[in-house]
Amino acid sequence: MATAARQRPINHVDLSRDALYVEDAWREPFARLRAEMPLSWCPESPFGPYWSAVTHDLVQKVELRPDVFSSRWDLGNITIADAVNGEGFPNFIAQDPPIHTAQRRVIAPAFSPSQMMKLDVAVKARTRELIDSLPVGETFDWVERVSIPQTLGMLCILFDMPFAEWRDIKRWSDWASGVSADNLNDEYRAEFLVQMGEMLARFDRELEDRRGKEPSDDLLSRMVHSEAMGHLEPMERIANIALLIVGGNDTTRNSMSALVEAFDKYPGELERLRADPALIPNAAQEIVRWQSPVTHMRRTALADTELGGQVIRQGEKVVMWYISANRDEAVFPDAERFDVGRDNARRHLGFGHGIHRCVGAKLAENQLAALIGEIAERGIRVMPQGAPTRLASPFLHGFTAMPVRIEPAA
Fold first, then answer.
1. 334, HSE (Cβ side, Cα atoms, 13 Å)
2. Which domains does the chain carry?
3. C-beta contacts of 126-131 below 8 A and 24+ residues apart
4. Residue 208: Cβ within 10 Å count
5. Could you please report the per-residue DSSP string of 297-356?
6. How confident is the model over 204-221, as pLDDT tens digits?
7. Residue 2's pLDDT band (boundaries 50, 70, 90)?
8. Closest of 312, 322, 373, 307 to residue 352, by C-alpha
9. 105 in Cβ contact with 98 (< 8 Å)
10. Which residue in 144, 230, 314, 351 has its CB near the most CB atoms, within 10 A?
11. Buried/exposed 331-351: b ≥16 CB within 10 Å, e otherwise
């Protein structure tokens, strides 16, 4: 065992450091690892030792073997942290089949093609209203005025809850997704439990309201009227509600913010969209690839196994770095470039892969396409007015503030 450990490809760069993402300095270390150590072992980090899979093919291989690489919350977690702020978090993506399968089936119909057609009307209407409300020629925060209210507004529709509560939902989402070495302390954990308790109390009122009514299409109604999710324990309710609000807003809102950077760095791509609006759906895929709003997911080995020529021992964590896989030049030539016409943009792993691929991916794509379409159709440019503030997290790749000004296109 000791001999095998010494022979492992050791990576002494801890990819879980917040600074890599706050300082936007992640590209070089991942590029080096893709070239030299596609699968590497980090022996020390605030989250313990872990394997890093950084190429597109290795991430796919891990995702496609849930029988070997487990998502179960009680064996670890779905992030590099071994628990969510010290708590087990038994939501449906932190499960393996058959539990995962049964619970996902409860949620999936809310994102069926017929439901997406209905929601698309609301998506486009909300997007137009938001853009109409923005000041022209004045500096404002794109994250606060566009990305957050657009995505959280759609969540309120999915939950059939008042839009006025979006700030509470946003706060709970931030606490539920707070993966950072800085959060590994008792003070943070205590406040996390307070916030999750408040969230549960609010959503329990909604769940009980739905329980007394006929089943409907909203997510909460689907949960309470199902065998798989209708009688969850309190921590299960917390975990699944947190999953829905984090998955339903964080990834999309961070991709919406990334659009500003992408069109600023590659202004010709916006002109391509104006000349050929048929490229807009592909541009929505490309921004998810280019931004990679979920930086990583994690699995735990159920038994000794082989991956990428290395022996992974039972119980060891394997971190799948989506942010690196989506920059893999072997799959995406000129991967750093934002290219709205990229012919394989849909091969991105920004929504995961296999049985755990994001159940709401189509809604996210529709929201992004609606926003891109409004920007292109109106003949405007969203111009950065200073450096954005980036999220301190190795889990979600995003922004907390982005000063911009809207100007007519030249």
1. 8
2. 2-408 (1.10.630.10)
3. 126/150, 126/153, 126/154, 127/367, 127/370, 127/371, 127/373, 127/374, 128/374, 131/371, 131/374, 131/375, 131/378
4. 11
5. EEEEESS-EEETTEEEPTT-EEEEEHHHHTT-TTTSTTTTS--TT-TTGGG--TT--GGG
6. 999 999 999 999 988 999
7. very low
8. 322
9. no
10. 351
11. bbeebeebbbebeebebbbbb
pLDDT tens per residue across span 38-61: 999 999 999 999 999 999 999 999
Rounded-to-integer distance, Cα 366 and Cα 226, Å: 27
Tokens of 36: 């030299």
User: Which distant-in-sequence residues (6+ apart) come within 8 Å of 224 by Cβ?
Assistant: 207, 208, 210, 211, 230
Residues linked to residue 84 through DSSP beta bridges, in sequence order: 87
Q: Which value, in Å, is the radius of gyration of the alpha carbons in the chain?
A: 21
The whole-angstrom separation of Cα 81 and Cα 128 is: 39
Orientation angle between helical segments 148-159 and 361-378, nearest 10 degrees? 140
Q: Which two tokens stand for residue 113?
A: 């093609």
Q: pTM for this structure?
A: 0.95
Cα 14 to its chain centre, rounded Å, is 21
Q: Which residues pair with 381 in a beta bridge?
A: 407
CA separation for the pair 17, 20 (Å, rounded): 6
